[in-house]
Amino acid sequence: MKIATFNINGIKARLPRLKEWLVETRPTVACLQEIKSMDENFPGHEFEEIGYRAIWHGQKSFNGVAILVDANAGIEGPIEVQRGLGIPGPDDSGEEQARYLEADVGGVRIVCIYLPNGNPQPGPKFDYKLAWMERLRARMAQIWAEEVPAAVLGDFNVIPEDNDVWSVKSMADDALMQPESRAAYSRLLGDGWTDAVRTHNPRGGVWTYWDYQAGAWQRDHGFRIDHILLSPELADRLEAVGVDRAHRGREKASDHAPVWAVLRD
Length: 265
Known about the structure:
This protein has 265 residues and is α+β, with helices and mostly antiparallel strands. Helices cover 24% and strands 26% of the residues. The strands form 3 sheets. Strands 3-4-2-1-14-13 form a 6-stranded mixed sheet.
């Protein structure tokens, strides 16, 4: 099973690039973030045409997550388990944002997340980020208690360590790298979850995001915020991990690159 995560930064704008990636790399499961589409406007038929089943949790103009499963892989799913964590957003409406989608796929629990950015910090958006991470941790503990093989994939908006960023100084004031953000991420690992990319790249230096500004892509000024966390059952099956870096350099690409892990049967 090949599982992947890809923050596509707008499904309408990136649909050709997204379908291109799916056809070329054929992940068994693909978790998408920032689809930026209301549920009724999600182009599910476009994925059916290339052999993928999909579920999604959308929101107008912002956020939004989806889980795609290769219909030719011979496995069931995605069978939705839960959408949302029941935590209100930081704006005046108090409505929950579309950031969490959980499903069963071929005997594996797949959790697709788009964790809040948290900027500017300090402030209510950073407080929301930390509260969301605590709620995520609680839900991950519930999944752990179910004793099902599980993977939590997505844009965590956390740079875990100094060797996960091209320049520590340049990001020192960003919410992605604050001690509180890192500590919350570290607690997930302390609970027993395995960072798949870190496992195969202990020295760091692997980027998953390059900003559109200041020639970040051309200068390789990136950092790692897209993660795959595995339960012990799946960590034992981890065979390979990678970042489809070349897709970031294509025309009208997302500012993120897809991240994937291969799990033995």
